[in-house]
Specification:
Layout (H helix, E strand, L loop, with lengths): L4 E9 L4 H9 L2 H5 L4 E8 L13 E7 L2 H8 L2 H12 L5 E9 L12
Antiparallel strand pairs: 1-3, 1-4, 2-3
Keywords: Monooxygenase, Oxidoreductase
Organism: Vreelandella nigrificans
InterPro entries: ABM_dom, Dimeric_a/b-barrel
Length: 115
Amino acid sequence: MSEKIYCIASFKPKAGKEEEVFKALQSLEPNTHREDACIHYTVTRQIDNPFATGTSYPIVFHEIWASREEFEAHCQRKEIQDFFAKHVESPDGDIEDANVCVYTDEPWNYDAPKV
């Protein structure tokens, strides 16, 4: 049974703040990559492509964590909490909206025996 947690964190910067938000999110990568449970943690920005014309927030973090508990521990790190307080929760922040969701790769009613 997989314990991995997949997180998609999407950000909508305030007008004119796209580059600043992208750089602020990039600054979180080095320390996060040091966490033992971090399997993948990359911030990306949306680009135009004729084969992918969907809509989304323009900046997205793609994360994979070894387990739910370790993802939740990451979310409680001071650096992460400070980022959200400054950029998302503060009225003076650079981010208009954020959408953070977690996913599993386990199918519904997965019945593998516990070992």
